[in-house]
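seq as requested:
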Amino acid sequence: MSAVFTPKTALLFVQLGTPDSPTPAGVRRYLAEFLADRRVVDLHRAIWLPLLHGLILRTRPQRSAILYQHIWRADGVSPLLHYSQSQQRAVALALQSAGIAVHYAMRYGNPSLATLLHTLVDGGVERLLIFPLFPQYSAATTASVLDAVQGAFAQRRLVPTLRFAQPFFAHSAYIDAWKAQILSHTNLEQVDCLLFSFHGLPQRHVDEGDPYERQCRQTARLLADALQLPPDRWSVAFQSRFGREAWLLPATDQRLAQLPAQGKKRLVVACPGFVSDCLETLEEIAIRGRECFMQAGGEQFHAVPCLNESGPWLSALAEISRQELSGWL
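struct tokens:
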């Protein structure tokens, strides 16, 4: 009897990225790649690139490096890299019996997405699931990963069979994992409001068809329902504005400054647009966000850690991965 041929299959998690070090040079290399992506900043290149290289990359890395130093781990790696490694290892163990190789890469920085793709194909991978670790779809994140994958294979003769995992913003396992994370870190009966803070996006992008805002609000609504919160005890805001054009509202910093005057002086903030803690959650929310809220008259502030290495999330990630690999296992 002839043997049954089973194509070599791999799963590749993709995160946004992180500097290699919390230094101006490390941040400059990261920002140069990140901010040069047309999906991230879609201004005309003749306008944007001189501004990027002539001003932004000369001034911003110094300031950003100080912020990264506030949240960098003692073992010398960034929180995002550490948690990405932990998530990859957990899913690799869960899928070991199925013979699925599990890897991770960064859209910007290291380990490089393009490098990992070439390494996997050179190693004989014939079926590849690309899994962007962004719960909500955005052209600036998910579509940028798709662009990078297509670009990496554009000059290759052999391209593996590709799948791209769906956004999981409404997946029951994801919602349950965040519910468990929030309840394990706070007693909601003792707070006035739960603020769901998502990364921002230019309003123009949504007006042009990006579903990101709708998906963020659906995630928040599903979580509020799961936590049995009435409408007056939770709200949504968008953080990390950049540039001068209009971004999604309400802005997180503005909401943090307004809530105490509205009687919401005991606050919990959760960021269900992220699966791993990073600069935007650890520094922008947990440090500067706390300062903003307390200076406005707040009494209690608690930032819920992202899902990171929590058991419910690692189980959920393995479950979603199995579903996306359906037919290949």
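The chain has a mean pLDDT of 96.
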